[in-house]
Each structure stands twice: as C-alpha cells, then as structure tokens.
Automatic annotation (TrEMBL), chain A:
This is XRE family transcriptional regulator. Residues 128-226 form the OmpR/PhoB-type domain. It holds the Pfam family Trans_reg_C. Residues 128-226 bind DNA. InterPro entries: CheY-like_superfamily (IPR011006), OmpR/PhoB-type_DNA-bd (IPR001867), Sig_transdc_resp-reg_C-effctor (IPR016032), Sig_transdc_resp-reg_receiver (IPR001789), WalR-like (IPR039420), WH-like_DNA-bd_sf (IPR036388). It comes from Sphingomonas endophytica.
UniProtKB/TrEMBL annotation, chain B:
The chain crosses the membrane at residues 6-32, 156-176. It comes from Sphingomonas endophytica. It holds the Pfam family HATPase_c. It catalyses: ATP + protein L-histidine = ADP + protein N-phospho-L-histidine. Its main location: membrane. This is histidine kinase. Residues 177-230 form the HAMP domain.
C-alpha cells in the first residue's frame, strides 16, 4: 500500500512541484493550502508523514504542529521553512517536528528525508549491534568493520560516517543529512568538505573489491547498497 | 580621579560639612563671649546700685567700710572697687589709684589694669561715677570672658574639629556611595542590554528625583532599542522569506527542467544554474546570519562546549579538504577550555576562514586557541601572502573583496561573518601579520 503524505504549503508553485515529485515516487499526496485545512486533515491521523510549511496564512506552521501534537498524533512531521537560523531550527524541533528543512531545498533532499522518516516511523526500535550491507559488516560493540572477512581500519569519524550510511542502507542520503547526522552541524560548509570525506571512505570500503557499495547519486548525495 | 564627578561631589560635601562645623564653633565662641560680657555688665550694675545705697545711708565713711568689706578676701574674687577722693587719691578699694582711662560718669567701659598687690594686668569691666560729695567711685568686675572664651574655643575645637573632620569624611563617603548606589541599577540595566538581554530595565524606586528621571529616560531608550531589534528580527525573517520563496520556486523549476531535458549541454547548463542558485542562497543566508549576529540575535542558542574538542572537530572536518589542496591543517589548542558559544555560527565562521586560506593563502593552516588575560581567542593562521595592514579595513567590509580576490567565487562575507560572530560573543575580530602570512584572531570575549 502506498504511503500517504499530507503536504501543508501555501505557495502553489512549490506545492505543485513537491506533490508531483512525491506522486511520481509512488506516494499518495493530499495538499492543504492553509493552516486550518492542514490541521483538519492532519487530525485525521491516517498519514504516514506530514510536510508542513512554517509560514502559512491563518494558523502558522508552528501552531498547526502544536495542535497536532497536542491532539496526541505522532505522525512524523517535517517542517519546511525560510527561517534557517539555528534558533529557528531548534524552536521547530523542540516543538515536536521530526525534521527541519530550510528553503530553498532540493526536491531530492526532501524525498530522502521523507523516506527516512517513514521508515523510522515504521521500523521497530530494536537495538542493532551489527550492521550489514552485502559483505560489509560493522560490529558496533567491538567497533570493528570487515568486508568479506577482511578488516577495514577506520578513523572514529569514518566509523560514524559508515555507521550512518549503513543505518540508511539502500537510501539516498544527502550531504546535509550527513552533515547533520555525523557532524551535528546545519550550515553549508562551503567547499566540498563532505565529498572529500566520502571519497576517503570509499577508498577504504570499495578499493580492491569488485562490486562497489558506496555510490554517488548525481545531484543528490550518496547511497550505500549492493545495487549500483 | 580628581576629575571624577563623584570625587568632586564628595569633596564638596566634605568641605561644606567642615565649614559648617567651623562656623558653628566660632558662633558658639562669640555667643559665649557676649554672654560673659553681659553677665559682667549686670554684675557691675548690681554692685553699683548696692554701693550707692550704702553711700546714701552711711556717707563716705559707710561707703568706705562697705568697699573694704567687699574687697576682702572672703568676697567674690572678681570684684574691682575704688573709692577715691576728688583728685583720685585712694580712700578704699583694691586699685592703687584712679585710672586715667576711666572718666567718671561716662558709663561702663572695658580696661586692662593691675589690681593692688597683683603682678598681672587683668581685663575688667568698669564704670566710674562721681558721688554727690565730689568723691569718685569705680565699680567693676574682672571679665575673664575673653580669655575664657578663647580657652573654651580651644578646648571645644580640640574635640570638635577631629569629630567634625570625621563626620565630614563620613558624609562625603556616604554621599558618594549613595550616588554610586543609585547609579548601580541603571548601570546594571545598560550592561544587561549590552550583553544581549534586551528586556532589562531600570527598576522604578518611586522617588521621582533626578536619578529616577534618568532611569525613566534610559528605559525609554532601551524600549526603543528593543522595538528596533524586534523590528529588525521581523525584517530579516521577512526578507529571508521573501527571498527564499522565489529561490525555492526557481530551484523547483530548474530541477523540473533537469528531469525533462535529454540534451547533455542543456543538462549541464541547468546544473550550473542550480549551483548558482545554491550559491545565491548561501550568500543570502550568510548575509542574514551576519545581520542577526551583529544585532545580537542568537545568544539564546549559546551552549556550553569544550572549545578544545569543538576546534578538534572542526579541524577533523576540514583536514581532508586542506590536505587535498596539498596543504596541512595543524591544531594548536590547550587540553580543555570550557566556554559558552554559538556552536553553529562559530563552526561556520571558522570554516569560512579555513576556506579563505585555501583560496588566498598558502602553507600550513594552523587553528589555534588560547585563554589569556581572561579573553578566549581562536586563531586561524597561514603562511601565505597575508593582507597588508593598510588593506585590513577593506578586507573586513561586508561584500568587500580585495582586488586580487575579486575574480574568485567568494562572496566577500567570510571575514564579515567571523567578525559578527566574534562580536556576538562579546569580543571582536583582528587581522594580524603572522610574519609571513595572515593570522585572523576571533576574540570570543572574557
């Protein structure tokens, strides 16, 4: 069954594009153009994810979010906002948002995050101690990484980077997602900082093996997986 | 110190206090003297009336007897009497002869005379008169008044002046303290606002005096500052929204186009346009960050971190990029340095500075941290050409790029952001000569 997404966005062009893009990716999208309609739909509770614009006519995004959470609805919410300062972001996340994406965003970024939230919401919260992808294996307790039985020596940050990729195996992770998830920063580091880290990791993980596991996804980011 | 208003005020209070004490002592002295004089005059008058009565009753002989009685050893020691014949020769009394300075019938006067048998001259209050029979009578009393008054003044001054000095000092100190204390609250409010607590105000003490009026005026100004700040916040938020929404739409259209065209050249153009859109967005975002940081917005998101760890993390993040450029990134930090910072902005500022060095500098990049004179300083240094001192101001201007860098892709915001971030932390940014090279110092306050 297709995942249902509620898009609450007042800007028609953005809503149109996002909704079209998500539909093409196999989601069912309902759109609300203002906070009141959005809140009405959201309390229905049958959505897998809510994409919520922060600045809305009528009830604003934060108001909608507050009302949704007050109603006991735990649907994952990703906030879209033109306000990108750290304090705005923190305010959004402490008010019950699961993710916060600053405008302007790339659609692929939004798609990757929506997928992440839906999977996180659906999967059990089982504590995994060994992460696997193909013949790559990471033991979180022993802090050991092997590929096809051969040990891979990783720096602490490389370990965390690979752990993040393994946890999101077969999913596209964007550079900002890596920056947030691995380094806990939310700014644009300017140069190709993340790419250089990834290319070093790739050398350790893929060099000398026939099938590469770490793939670059053009215009989006990276994906760890068996399929090219 | 002598020019400080508080000191001058205290000095004025001290002097006035002392002057009033001195005036009081002098006044008391004068009034004591006057009192003594009028006592003497009264004594003389009583004596004179008594003696006239005995003259009326007993004639010269009776009067002489009375005079002798009154100048005897057992009577008031201050009494001066002389009964003399028509030519001034003594009949009875304790003066040897009629003093030439006393004219009979001329009322009371003050003179200095020797009494019989005494070796010291004494000030006395005397009155001479001629009796009906032609004899002369001098009635008087020693006025110890002057001497006693002076002695009393001396005694009083000896005790009172040190006391007055003490009280004057105390008054001056208390007055100065009172002013300082009254200024404490306005000062605290102004400092709090300068430190970012825009809601701080001077409490109203209900006194309606000049200092309370000053407090009200300060509050008015602070109110205005807060309003302007919140307007600025709204304006930047609005600007962010107004600029970002069209940018989002533009990005959306370009992304859409990228999925629809097949021509490799067109795809490349669209990718370039997307990259430019992202660059434009980054510039808008950074410019907004600078404006907000300069306005002191964001202090509410300060967190306590170990700066040594934080810098190590930043170095670790940028090291691969620096190494790919054929350079090295060294770290020169103490073991630990807890500090309260805007983690995100600090990292962004340092990232920009490292980026700048990669673009315009040369040699190893050193990320330093030290805590001296109570100030925390983070430095980014390299061994490149540096910036001549005369160009520092140009380099620090927002969107200001030095000529040789103008062709590059930088927006000229890196140093502005670093400066704004340093000022947000209560410090500032300094460009220096690393001889050779550039050293950028971010003072994160003390």
């Amino acid at each position: 069954m297709a995942n249902k997404i509620l898009l609450i966005e007042d800007d028609d062009a953005t809503a149109d594009f996002v909704s079209r893009g998500l539909t093409e990716e196999g989601f069912v999208v309902d759109r609300a153009a203002n906070g009141r309609d959005g809140l009405f739909h959201a309390t229905d509770g049958s959505y897998d994810c809510i994409v919520l614009d922060r600045m809305l006519p009528g009830i604003d995004g934060m108001g909608v979010l507050g009302a949704v959470r007050a109603a006991g609805i735990e649907t994952p919410v990703i906030v879209l906002s033109a306000l990108g300062a750290a304090e705005d972001r923190i305010h959004g996340l402490t008010n019950g948002a699961d993710d916060y994406l600053t405008k302007p965003f790339a659609f692929i970024e939004l798609l990757a995050r929506v997928r992440l939230l839906i999977r996180r919401g659906g999967a059990g919260k089982a504590v995994e101690t060994v992460l696997r992808c193909g013949d790559l294996e990471m033991d979180l307790l022993a802090r050991r990484t092997r590929r096809a039985g051969k040990a891979i020596d990783l720096q602490p940050r490389e370990f965390r980077l690979l752990e993040f990729l393994l946890r999101h195996a077969d999913q596209v992770v964007t550079r900002t997602m890596l920056l947030e998830g691995v380094w806990d920063y939310h700014f644009d580091p300017g140069t190709n900082v993340i790419d250089v880290h990834l290319s070093r990791l790739r050398k350790k993980v893929d060099e000398g093996f026939e099938r590469p596991l770490l793939h670059t996804v053009r215009g989006a980011g990276y994906r760890l997986g068996i399929d090219p | 110190m002598y020019r400080s208003a508080t000191f001058r005020f205290a000095a004025l209070v001290f002097i006035l206090q002392l002057a009033s004490a001195a005036a009081l002592i002098v006044m008391i002295g004068l009034s004591v003297r006057q009192q003594l004089n009028s006592d003497a005059r009264r004594t003389v008058a009583v004596l004179r009336d008594d003696l006239r009565a005995s003259y009326a009753g007993g004639g010269v002989a009776g009067l002489a007897r009375e005079v002798r009685l009154r100048t005897g050893a057992l009577v008031t020691p201050g009494t001066v009497l002389l009964l003399a014949d028509r030519d001034g020769g003594r009949i009875a009394g304790n003066l040897d002869a009629w003093p030439p300075s006393v004219t009979p019938g001329a009322g009371s006067t003050e003179v200095t005379l020797y009494r019989s048998g005494l070796t010291a001259a004494e000030a006395m209050h005397v009155e001479g008169m001629r009796l009906r029979g032609g004899e002369r009578l001098l009635v008087g009393t020693i006025v110890a008044g002057e001497a006693r008054a002076i002695r009393m003044l001396e005694q009083v001054s000896g005790v009172a002046l040190p006391l007055a000095l003490m009280f004057a000092s105390l008054a001056a100190w208390m007055a100065a303290r009172m002013i300082v204390a009254r200024l404490e609250e306005p000062l605290a409010a102004l400092n709090a606002v300068a430190a970012g607590d825009l809601g701080a105000r001077v409490p109203d003490d209900g006194s309606h005096d000049a200092l309370a009026t000053l407090g009200v005026a300060i509050n008015g100004a602070l109110e205005r500052v807060e309003t302007l700040m919140s307007e600025l916040r709204m304006a930047t938020d609005g600007l962010a929204h107004d600029l970002k929404s069209p940018l989002t739409r533009m990005r959306v259209v370009l992304e859409r186009a990228a999925t629809e065209v097949r021509e490799p050249a067109a795809i490349e153009s669209i990718d370039r346009a997307l990259a430019e859109a992202d660059r434009l967005f980054t510039m808008v975002q950074t410019a907004l960050s600078i404006t907000r940081a300069e306005a002191g917005i964001g202090r509410e998101t300060f967190v306590a971190v170990d700066l040594a760890v934080e810098l190590a993390g930043i170095a670790e993040m940028y090291a691969p990029v620096v190494e790919d450029a054929g350079r090295t990134l060294a770290l020169d930090v103490p073991g630990t340095l807890p500090w309260v910072v805007h983690r995100e902005l600090l990292a962004q500022a340092l990232g920009n500075l490292i980026d700048n060095s990669l673009k315009y500098g040369a040699g190893p990049v050193t990320l330093g941290l030290d805590h001296t004179d109570g100030q925390v300083r983070v430095t980014v240094a390299d061994r490149g050409p540096g910036i001549p001192a005369a160009r520092h101001e140009d380099a620090l201007r927002r969107f200001g790029r030095l000529d040789d860098a103008r062709s590059g892709t930088g927006a000229g915001l890196g140093l502005s952001l670093a400066g704004a971030v340093a000022r947000l932390h209560g410090g500032g940014l300094v460009l220096g000569d690393a001889a050779p090279g550039l050293v950028v110092t971010l003072n994160l306050g003390g």
